[in-house]
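Question: Send over one sample?
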Amino acid sequence: MTLRAYPVRYLPGEDELVWTGGLGVTVRFTPGVEPLTMADEVDLLVVTPEDFSESLQPLVEHKDSYGVATRLVTLEDVYGGVFFEVRGRDEAERVKYFIKDAVEEWGVRYVMLVGGRNGGLLEEKWWCPVRYAHLDDGSNWEASYLSDLYFADIYNPDGSFSSWDTNGNDLFAEYSLMSKDILDLYPDVYVGRLACRNSYEVEVMVDKIITYETTAHGSEWFHRMVAVGGDSAPRAGDPWYEGEEENKAALSYMDDFEEVTLWTSDGSLSGPQDVIDAVSRGCGFLFFDGHGNPMNWATHPPHDEETWIDGLGVGDMRKLSNDGMYPVCVVGGCHNGQFNVSLLNLLKIYEGYQHWYSYIYKGEVSPESWAWWITRMAGGGAIASLGYTGLDWFATGDGDQDGIPDCTQYLSGFMHVNFFWEYGENGRRMLGELHGETVADYINAFFPTTEKLDYKTAEEWALLGDPSLMVGGYP
């Protein structure tokens, strides 16, 4: 059992500082009638449609050769009850129940979901099912967003299955004025997704993962970190350049890495070519913090909200020439990880002009999302990416008056900075653990909470990549 205490907390939504004068802890343990036991047979579970299974076989063999016991299960076998009893109201819930059984019967720690969008105009179609969280953040931008945390949060605190639909109305992770589902949110297994849309993308990812894990260790390029940022929220009287402050905080934990900063404040970030040049030298980590949509990432120069400086768009990524030198990419920005986008949205004029045009200005007509594009591209790009499937909310100023910019302490900034803390200070090396334990850190720090944005921040942070990836490769 791990107990973490946070006696002082700032509530951004209420602009309040709360503290306690003392803590008392009583632990009572009552064993269940049938204690939960775990096998130790499989480390990595790969869930994929049959169409991709042949292309994934070299990855299974590679993982096994490095001691990561891997089992590939097709969705057809999941739905057909080949291994376990089929339970669940829809395909996503059936997959989640299967993961639960695999955790309990096989000892699975990592789950790789393989499959992204598979067309669909009137209704989305998916190679591998997804779940949408239904939280209305009041932005009038979105009332739901993709959440793969659903597949990782298997259990309620009492050990029962976590449906994410405690009121039984088939709206999952609901948070509104009228209704709210009770969620645990702690990852019980480490989940990542290869959002592949065809066999070619699967083959690219298999090749990149094998190349990375067998060649990155001991390389000069891996021990370089590129951090990109600017003034995310230019406001009068605010001395902090949020993107750059998050970059600094993250870099402070990466002692063994050469720092390459691209910032608007010193002119080192003036456009996409600066990012292309830096990444093409090779780097182990790539950290963007600013603004985004499914097609682009950009930020502001200091104190200038009217001016945008582009960092990297999907159209620029083909110019990256870092073949074999792939970073783990953490991107702070709205919707960079929104992996449900499609060119098919251009055909939705039948929904009315205003709705149709919204797909365009929101960047939802991108063939694939920014975060997945940089990951699945051949000959360069990233080995994995972590980004937001919805609006990325961040803090500004120094509301808690501790002399530390709030952008590094709350909401998405907490996620980014603690991801690098988990690597640099806590010594985690498996990518899924880095992602999952950062989410757990967030929940430990801010829950229980009445701030809906805390729920959203945890739910929408997606890992697009191999959760069992050995960051930095194997010796």
